[in-house]
Write a structure and sequence with these properties.
Distance between the termini: 73 Å
Order of helices and strands: EHEEEHEEHHHHHHHEEEEHEEEEH
Number of helices: 11
Number of domains: 2
Radius of gyration: 32 Å
Strand content: 15-25%
Number of strands: 14
Length: about 400
């Protein structure tokens, strides 16, 4: 028979799945309010409305039929259900590693009368909680290593909202798995000492925090998906607009025309002469700049190179300092030899790199909350590296 919405109710689950005693206590109190469990979900439970009554709920560890990776079955086998029904207990639903039974008869015997035997039955559930905790830590560290190694600060500056949502999601899952392991370990320890479980445990003390975190998780997950999709669309965006003379005016860093005296003649290739401006919550100004061409004076080529610049104006000075390593890691496989540079007035910190052949060059300058990384080529080893560094630093220092 089809049920109506008025006959059903949903409630945020106030306790973690492995906190067996709190779950049993909460379900019993719901029955006293006229809400009887039908289904246990990820963050909410579905109840059928009825006449309030005293109802006992018990969670029993599901018996794994295969490896721990296969997970527990969806329902107990027919023999187990029949045995428990004869004792007055009816199977309701599965909850992660446990089966939930309910009993109306107040004098019906407990499902487990020997605490030591119940402790043994929880062994597989404890192992599952342990592997869940260790697995999440391993996945968390692997994700950091593969995706944010040498560019964590850069990701934070570029995509602060995405990183925030991901951090909240990761921390909550780490806390949740750790608490689950603690709860099941504490219960097993108590049962081993011969003490019966507390079926009326106070679940209200930590319920607001757990329910609030579950509610946030329901909000964060779709938002995280939206930002991930936006990130994918952003990485597959079209080529930035081609440079124009108007784009170059007022840039907070040097361009080819600033690095040598003469007339700039750019290559015709449009994808090597582009500028892109954007911003984030932690960086009001982000500029990616590419310029490929020559500086010519009296028919003599004064400078012939490809210049690539990344500029960030951050909200905090420490972010600008933190970006140094990330910006260099983009180029360190080509320009890995630190260079000695004379003192540059108006610059807080400077890093200069070159490869052994002197073809690839990189300069990183920091001034307050601003940082710029410039990379260029000296294919014929004809450039005066120090002179270019000084010219670049002069423009950067006085372009506040």
């Amino acid at each position: 028979m089809k049920t109506t919405n008025k006959e059903m109710a949903r409630r945020l689950i106030p306790c973690p799945p492995y906190d067996v005693e709190s779950c049993e206590s909460w379900l019993g109190e719901m029955a006293e309010e006229g809400l009887f469990l039908e289904h246990w979900g990820l963050t909410t439970a579905r109840f059928r409305r009825g006449i309030p009554m005293t109802m006992r709920y018990r969670l029993t560890a599901a018996r794994l039929t295969g490896s721990i990776l296969a997970g527990p079955p969806l329902a107990p086998d027919a023999q187990e259900q029949s045995l428990y029904e004869d004792a007055g207990w009816r199977f309701i639903c599965r909850q992660d590693e446990f089966f939930i039974y309910a009993c109306k008869n107040p004098v019906a015997p407990e499902l487990h009368t020997d605490p030591a035997v119940q402790a043994i039955s929880l062994k597989m559930a404890w192992k599952s909680a342990l592997w869940s905790f260790l697995g999440f830590i391993a996945a968390f560290l692997l994700h950091i290593f593969l995706n944010y190694s040498d560019r964590l600060i850069l990701f934070l500056v570029e995509f602060p909202v995405l990183i925030l949502f991901w951090f909240v999601f990761a921390v909550w899952n780490l806390f949740s798995t750790a608490r689950g392991l603690y709860c099941i370990s504490a219960l097993r320890s108590r049962l081993r000492r011969g003490l019966p479980p507390d079926h009326h445990k106070n679940w209200r003390r930590s319920a607001p925090l757990y329910q609030c975190a579950n509610g946030l998780q329901l909000l964060v997950l779709p938002l995280l998906g939206v930002f991930l999709i936006a990130l994918l669309l952003n990485t597959s965006r079209t080529v930035p607009p081609v440079l124009s003379e108007q784009d170059i005016q007022g840039l907070p860093f040097a361009t080819l025309g600033d690095l040598a005296e003469g007339t700039v003649v750019r290559e015709e290739s449009s994808d090597h002469n582009t500028i892109e401006r954007r911003h984030s919550l932690l960086a009001p100004t982000i500029i990616e700049y590419q310029e490929n061409g020559r500086v010519v004076q009296n028919d003599e080529v004064m400078l012939d190179t490809f210049l690539q610049v990344d500029y960030y104006e951050t909200r905090f000075r420490w972010l600008a300092q933190g970006l140094v390593g990330d910006l260099h890691s983009r180029w360190d496989n080509l320009a890995d030899q630190p260079q000695t540079i004379p003192e540059l007035p108006g610059i807080d910190a400077v890093w200069a790199y070159s490869d052994k052949s002197g073809v690839f060059r990189q300069l990183i300058l920091v001034q307050g909350n601003r940082i710029v990384s410039a990379r260029w080529l000296d294919s014929y080893n004809t450039q005066d590296f120090e002179e270019i560094v000084v010219r670049f630093a002069e423009v950067f220092a006085y372009s506040k």
